[in-house]
Design a protein that fits this description.
Blueprint: H1 8-24, H2 29-32, H3 35-54, H4 58-84, H5 90-116
Amino acid sequence: MSRYEHIRIFQCAYMLTIEIYKTTGNFSREFKYSLGEKLKNSAHEILDAIMRVNSMPDKEKEKCFPEIDFKKENLRVYLRIAADLKLISPGRLGVLNERIEELGRQLGGWSRWTASRPTGQAKMGSER
C-alpha cells in the first residue's frame, strides 16, 4: 500500500478536516447532527479519495481528480450554507475557504504532475 501521510495534498486535506471538526463542535444541536455531519463526512470523503488515488497507477489517477474536485466544491457549498445560517462567522468561513483553495492548488499540481509522468515511473508518494 502506498504511503500518503507525507504528501502535501493529504496534509492539506487532513488539516481541513481537523478545522471542520473544530468548527462543527460549536454548532447547536439542531445543526450538529445534520449539517455538521455532512461537513465532516465531506471532509472524510476527500481524505479517503486522496488515499485511494495515491495507491493507483498514474494512468488511473487522472480519472479520479475530477471526483476529488467535486467533493471539494461540495464541501465549500455546505460551508456556505453554515455561514448563511450564521453557524460560522464570515472570518471562519474565510479561513476554511483558504484551506479549500490550498487543497485545490495541490490537486491541480498533483494532476499536472501525474499527467507529465511517463508510464512506468514511481508514484508521487515516493518522490515528494
